[in-house]
Write a structure and sequence with these properties.
Structural class: alpha/beta
Strand content: 5-15%
Number of helices: 17
Oligomer: single chain
Distance between the termini: 21 Å
Number of strands: 8
């Protein structure tokens, strides 16, 4: 039977206490407890290690705000009151990424007010800043870069977006660059740069027959909106790429620690393995694996088969149904524990040097600071 102790033990407290670690990125598939893990780590860093910490979440369900006793979270860090930092001297701040607000702030920072107003009014920008594929992941990177540049925090804990794939967080800057460098965009940008004539005339002169096809497919108004959007953002394109590259370098530096978060389910562990491989390829610092919602046995010396046989004997004897039911429940839990160990072993066999820690499944969802403390203690003292 695979052992969950096959991997070296992850010392989370060592990471949180290290002044050289300024960023902790929690990543993994959706629904594995990234938000709770990120909040628990940030709280522990503030309370136990005296660090001025901010946790950035991208959780649309706002569970983090509720857990921290805040009425709401927005794009500005809010200090969490009522936590135990009197002895440590730490602070905890929390914020939730507002994708459109972050995009708007980037525009305001890198253009003059007149051009910013033009961009904000463009229908294509309004759609892209709210719903464009990859925008949320890119803006998470953008916000991380902003927080890091401000230098106000001892530690930044990032809860990555609930994407279809955990790799979307790392791939977003490259996807945006491909979009900005795409052939269609360059064709639209070339006439927009020339100036002095109507958009329709520019498009017609530059594209010829191609423009007629594009107008037929997209419609003249949409083509005008798109070309206007490209023209307005032209001066910002290099800035997007430069900031993405800067943040990428920060993620490769020793001041960053990636923590993979998974549950002992095949899809979640597979996603964690993909991400671990990608981090290794990109030379990004993988600190370890947090395996959430692991089921443990109160009587591990009693295996599933022994429990099943004992339950059947008691049933045959009669008068011991309550005990037999307990044994059956134990047998089911023992089988589940074995399955979970087998699934977890797929990761540890592929990445035997990656430290790991298992967090026992909780009887109820975490909904307050005490619950976050329990999770933080479970991660740090397995």
């Amino acid at each position: 039977m695979p052992s969950e102790d096959a991997a070296p033990l992850l010392d989370v407290d060592q990471i949180l206490a290290d002044p050289g670690v300024r960023i902790v990125v929690c990543c993994g598939a959706g629904g594995v407890g990234k938000t709770t893990t990120a909040a628990a780590l940030a709280l522990r860093a503030a309370e136990h290690h005296g660090r001025r910490t901010v946790v950035l979440t991208i959780d649309p369900a706002r569970r983090l705000a509720q857990s921290l006793g805040l009425t709401e979270l927005d794009n500005t860090p809010r200090q969490v009151k009522g936590i135990d930092v009197e002895d440590s001297g730490g602070e905890l701040h929390a914020m939730m990424l507002d994708m459109k607000r972050t995009f708007d702030d980037v525009v305001l920072q890198h253009t003059d007010p007149a051009k910013a107003a033009e961009i904000f009014a463009n229908p294509f920008y309004q759609a892209m800043s709210s719903t464009f594929a990859g925008t949320q992941e890119y803006m998470a990177m953008e916000k991380l870069g902003q927080l890091h540049a401000r230098g106000e925090w001892d530690l930044i804990v990032v809860d990555t977006p609930p994407s279809r794939s955990a790799l979307d967080f790392l791939d977003a800057p490259a996807r945006l660059s491909r979009f900005l460098d795409g052939r269609m965009l360059r064709l639209l940008l070339a006439p927009a740069r020339s100036g002095g004539r109507s958009m329709f005339s520019l498009v017609t002169a530059s594209f010829g027959m191609f423009s007629k096809v594009v107008q037929k497919v997209l419609g003249a108004q949409l083509l005008t909106d798109l070309s206007g959007f490209v023209a307005a953002l032209d001066s910002m394109f290099g800035g997007f790429r430069q900031r993405a590259e800067q943040t990428y370098r920060i993620l490769q530096a020793g001041e960053t620690a990636f923590l993979l978060v998974a549950t002992p389910e095949p899809d979640a562990v597979r996603e964690a393995a993909y991400f671990a491989g990608r981090l290794r390829e990109e030379r990004m610092p993988l600190a370890g694996l947090v395996l959430n919602r692991v089921h443990r046995l109160a009587a591990p010396e009693l295996d599933a088969e022994q429990s099943r046989v004992a339950a059947e004997r008691l049933t045959d004897l009669g008068g011991h149904e309550a005990t037999a039911d307990v044994l059956r429940a134990h047998a089911a839990l023992a089988r589940q524990a074995v399955r979970e160990q087998q699934v977890a072993a797929r990761f540890t066999e592929a990445f035997p040097a990656v430290p790991a820690v298992s967090v026992t499944a909780q009887p109820a969802d975490v909904h307050d600071v005490d619950g976050l403390r329990t999770i933080g203690a479970a991660i740090s003292r397995p």
